[in-house]
Automatic annotation (TrEMBL):
Keywords: Acyltransferase, Cell inner membrane, Cell membrane, Membrane, Transferase, Transmembrane, Transmembrane helix. This is Lysophospholipid acyltransferase family protein. The keyword Phosphoprotein does not apply. GO terms for biological process: glycolipid biosynthetic process. GO terms for cellular component: plasma membrane. It holds the Pfam family Lip_A_acyltrans. InterPro entries: LipA_acyltrans (IPR004960). One of its GO terms (molecular function) is acyltransferase activity. CDD domains: LPLAT_LABLAT-like (cd07984). It comes from the Bacteria. The keyword Cell inner membrane applies.
Amino acid sequence: MKKVLTSLTKYPLYIISLLPFPVLYLMADLLYAIIYYAVGYRRQVVQSNLRNAYPEKTDAEIYSIEKKFYHWLSDMMLESIKMASMSPETIKKRFRLNNPELISSYFSEGKPVLLVTAHYGNWEWGSLVLSANFREPLIIVYKPLTNKTFEEMMNHVRSRFGAIMVPMKQTLRKIVNYRSSTYWAVFLGDQTPVRQEAHYFTSFLNQRTPVFLGIEKIAKMTNAPVVFGHLNRIKRGYYEATFTTLSENPAGTTEYEITESHTRLLEKIINERPELWLWSHKRWKNSY
């Protein structure tokens, strides 16, 4: 039954992925009207998150960000489907790496890299563009979904160019397997810890927020450079990534220094263009 359901979903989506970008974005415009006006997909969550994050903004300003967010979200959904058939040449054309030499310099020194990014810009295309530009093993750490059929489909397209998908709880085991070689591991720094794993809280977007400490723990254990990846949108269908080193010597950092570093940088990026972050995510459900 699982294979039947997967096939019924996978093949129609693959056919959609073959459509040219102009047609996909017409579909995205239609999808926007459906999820924003007709269905109202998580609008209460989005509005609550925006108002809590920006209490100083007027209703008109919040409304403007909200509408831009749903336009971007609709594009993201269709762009994610497009991943199923995108070629390496297409992803390189549409997703520019501004300073790949920063990553290459660590690899040339025989160092692995821990890359921190977020649900911002187009993190899904990020898995393809990083794999298409580097030969080193790319480990993508993800949080397993309740819907295993959808998880399997997404992991398949994310790993088309060789990325290695690793469930969050298996991260350390996988990294240990690569300890004698250069690699990079990608983490989403804005994931929400479950209650029993929420051991550290900080201020993020004007709210008390639990933050995973796994990135910092692995960084100190491996002493691998920690780099932040800012995945920005240039225009519709075109993105760029800019890498910023947060720590070259994690073993020498103070407690929570790395965690605060990537959290503060993400906060700054979101405040500059808030419509490109995933506001429909229930980020503060475990703020207690």
